[in-house]
Amino acid sequence: xxxxxxxxxxxxxxxxxxxGIGAMVAEGLRDAGARVLVTSRKVDACxxxxxxxxxxxxxxxxxxxxxxxxxLDGVHAEFGGSLDVLVNNAGVTWGAPLDDFPRxxxxxxxxxxxxxxxxxxxxxxxxxxxxxxxxHAARVVNIGSVDGLRVPVFENYSYSAAKAAxxxxxxxxxxxxxxxxxLVNAIAPGAFPSDMTAAxxxxxxxxxxxxxxxxxxxxxxxxxxxxxxxxxxxxxxSYVTGVVLPVDGGITGxxx
Length: 256
Ligand SMILES: NC(=O)c1ccc[n+]([C@@H]2O[C@H](COP(=O)([O-])OP(=O)(O)OC[C@H]3O[C@@H](n4cnc5c(N)ncnc54)[C@H](OP(=O)(O)O)[C@@H]3O)[C@@H](O)[C@H]2O)c1
Prior knowledge:
Elements: E1 11-15, H1 20-31, E2 35-40, H2 43-53, E3 57-59, H3 65-79, E4 85-88, H4 103-123, H5 125-132, E5 138-143, H6 157-177, E6 182-189, H7 198-201, H8 204-212, H9 222-233, E7 244-247
Parallel strand pairs: 1-2, 1-4, 2-3, 4-5, 5-6, 6-7
Helix pairs in contact: 1-9, 3-4, 4-6
Bound molecules: NADP nicotinamide-adenine-dinucleotide phosphate.
NADP nicotinamide-adenine-dinucleotide phosphate is lined by residues 15-16, 18-22, 39-42, 45, 61-63, 67, 89-92, 112, 116, 143, 145, 189, 191-192, 194-197.
């Protein structure tokens, strides 16, 4: 059973791995023996994460060609151009009332959550295919959201649309890349404490409102997200591709 979840020595990139859900995944996979590289835009955040996690951290904005090139350089420098696992976690949100929702809220959110995810994945395909040629399937795990599966609580129109796009892109890429031995899946988290959800969870009433909307009546934890991630990137997940796995305490599965 232990071997089924063995990821010792696997090379892993986690975008947005400096805090929140990305940091949970990076730390969990590192603790399981993987060689992890994290990325995010802020130099200071990368430096701090590198010290905390004991892994390389590359400052890179995945929504730009320069940022994508920087991650590619990092993979070549750290892993010699072969990559076993890409976790596309970097993401941003934007909230505004429907009548005032600005164009910038579409450009920024789609540029990072969808275009950045797509362009980084395609740039890293040679490295992923190289890994897949070594005998075990390479993995891409995209972090989607329950907001891409059901109508969200908040007015985050570009975010919910972007996450639905991430889920369909996951299936599309999985279909095309199956022949190359690259498995592509998504995790759709529910409510996890992070900078992204800090404002909504700041007051007791806000937190209670969110927890009460979860059938299991609690927020997600690091173990919840790492457990799902490790399943998808280990031998245990070898026969799984093109799925969107909600990790949401039952929000989607038990919803009406
Ligand atoms: N928290 C939740 O409840 C929840 C629920 C569903 C889905 N999600 C998804 O989970 C993922 C992580 O969210 P989170 O809650 O952990 O948010 P977070 O705490 O705000 O973390 C986001 C991470 O992404 C990085 N990032 C943002 N824009 C980037 C860019 N253009 N290029 C590279 N890195 C970038 C941030 O670092 P820098 O600022 O340094 O770039 C940070 O490391 C997102 O895709 C989010 O949509 C979260």
